[in-house]
Amino acid sequence: MTETATKTNKMRDLHIEKLVVNISVGESGDKLTRAAKVLEQLTEQTPRFSKSRLTVRGWGIRRNEKIACYVTVRGPLADQILEKGLKVKEFELSKANFSATGNFGFGIDEHIDLGIKYDPTSGIYGMDFYVVLGRPGFRIGRRRHCQSKIGRSHKVTKEDAMKWIVQKHDVTLVN
Fold first, then answer.
1. How many angstroms separate the CA atoms of 45 and 123, rounded?
2. How far is the C-alpha of 23 from the C-alpha of 48, rounded, in Å?
3. pTM of the entire structure?
4. For residues 53, 129, 157 and 90, what is the CA-based torsion angle, rounded to 10 degrees?
5. Which of 19, 45, 115, 123 has the most neighbouring CB atoms within 10 Å?
6. What 8-state DSSP symbol labels residue 151?
7. Are 142 and 88 in contact (CB under 8 A)?
8. pLDDT tens track for 11-69
């Protein structure tokens, strides 16, 4: 074995557990179904709908009304979609985009920047990307049988996530 092979621990490698792409329209109806079609074009998955938690009379939103749609993407497709989103942001993220648990998110203003063809009937939508990072072995905290805690040294930190995104996707971090 080479010297570098013994020093790297494959259990410490970070990977994308999931990527959540969200479009919050703020109203139900035709506009929301068109936003769902945009998400379906991007991810090739059927989107789920989010409901409002409470009534806001000033915004015209009622409780339990569908106001947003989202898709959870896993595997290699999540990496491809994240790459498209970072290309729109010109591979620049703020350090404030990262949470203490090593997850990060960002938003884009126009979905047509992702390479989706513009359709005048559907309009232009902004969307949010949220990435959850993980390490091999994280399942022990969520499984049903013989559940256990994840050690402090194995948890993903903000610094780990920032280091990973810089190395893997060549992103520059700004304050």
1. 20
2. 11
3. 0.88
4. -150
5. 19
6. P
7. no
8. 999 999 999 999 999 888 899 999 999 999 999 999 999 999 999 899 888 999 999 99
